[in-house]
Structure formats: C-alpha cells, structure tokens
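anyone seen this seq b4? input:
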Amino acid sequence: MKTIIFWASLALVVITASSFVMAGKAITLKGSDTLLMLGQRWAELYMQKNPGVVIQVTGGGSGVGIAALINGSTDICQASRSMKDSEKKKLRERYFNMGTEIPVAKDGVTIYINEKNPVDELTLDQIRDIYTGKTTNWSQLGGPDAKIIVYGRENSSGTYVFFRESAMKNADYTSSMQSLPGTAAVVNAVAKDKFGIGYGGAAYAKGVKEVAIKTAQGSFRPTTETVKSGQYPLSRDLYWYLRGKPSGEIKKMIDWVLSPEGQEVVKKVGYFTVK
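predicted toks r here
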C-alpha cells in the first residue's frame, strides 16, 4: 500500500509540474557554471516557499546561456561575465531591446594550487606568465623544481573570458593548458596534482590552497572586504540577464534573490553579496 501511495504521490507531483510547464509558467535558468550551484540553491528555496512554482536550472557556461537567451530557450541567463556588444546587438535585432542586466552576487576569481605547494602569493604578471606559457617551472616562483601543470576552463565559460581579459590582458592561453568542463573539475584536478594551478569561483575553493594576489597596495585574497572594495584584482559581478523587463513570477523571484533572505544564500554558498 505504501508503494502505491508513493507512486501516486510522485505521479501527482509530475503531473503538477508538467501542468505548470505546459501552462508556460516554469522559469528556466541556464548558463554560468560558476553560478550553477547558487542558482540551484535559490531555486530549491524559492520553490519551497512558493508551492506550484517550477524552476529549472542548467549550466553549460555563460556563452551557452547567453545564446539560449537570444534564441528564446531560457527565461534567465546566468552569466559570470557581462554580455558583449555583439551579443547585445543580436538581442536587440531579435527582440527590439537590449535586455536587462541584473547583478545578483559578487565573486573573486580565485587562483587554486595544491595544498602541498609552498607558494603563497603571486602577482598578476606572474599569473599571466604562467597562463601564457612564459613561466613553466615552480622554481621560477619560489616553489619546487617542477613543471607547472596548467588547468583552465573551456572557451564557452564566462570565467575563461573574464580571466583572459582581467588577468592576461587578452593574451592567448598556453597550448599546454588542460581545459576542463567545469570549475569543480578544475578544483578536483588541482587537489590531486601537487604541481597544478587553476582558477575559478571563490565558492568552489575547497580542498585546495588559495593564492593571494600581490599588488602595489598589498597582498589580497578574495574576502567580503577585498572583493567589495575592489582591492582584490579579480573581483567581478555575477549576473542574471533577461530579454526584457522582469514581470510576474520572474520579477517576484528576482526581488527575493536581491532581498536580505536571498542574499544570505549568496553568503552560505560562498560568494559575496551585491549590497
């Protein structure tokens, strides 16, 4: 009997969700891998607070999310970089407006190395030289005499684009970089590789060592203070993009995400609030 009740209950949930989707009321979020974990947490809590609302969250990268926003296959694009002018032009040509950009959280792109690596800080110049292939051995940076194993993201990633623009001054990545499909994969690789280095969102820095970035003003790690003040050189906004002005259930959800309750989720996941 319990089995019958369980399957009957499950069927009811599926029917309810399906009905919601068929009624065109499901909210879809797609894009940034950096924002995937946060978007999923927001969706879980919002659906708990608002029975009947269905939210679907998928990743793929900021570039994939922006393309989905333009072709109409997602309601909200999650992006870890701002939209390019060429992408805004496509949106305007198709929908006759430039869309809506909403900063929903802040991040400090973090440099990860293995916990056994003695290197504690790097300058942006040193980071750029590693990722362009100019510096190839940890001994050039005060570390062990060992080849640097470089890990990074795929080019559909917003973090790939942001890091190239902000840390590398738009130089090309070294051909030896191992491109991985998500930040979790980068962290996992560096955690296992004594001579590895990677980069990604601050919320993913578990089981690896965070490298401080040395500037003329001091040496900084990504914290609430350094990210909000901009002292941390790789600070950035994380965005939601819409095709037009928010309305209806999407506006209610955005208002909640930006509320103290929604921003508390940002802190719990490991990012930094926008206010």
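Residues 213 and 219 are 5 Å apart (CA to CA). The chain is about 40% helix and 20% strand. kinda curious what u guys think
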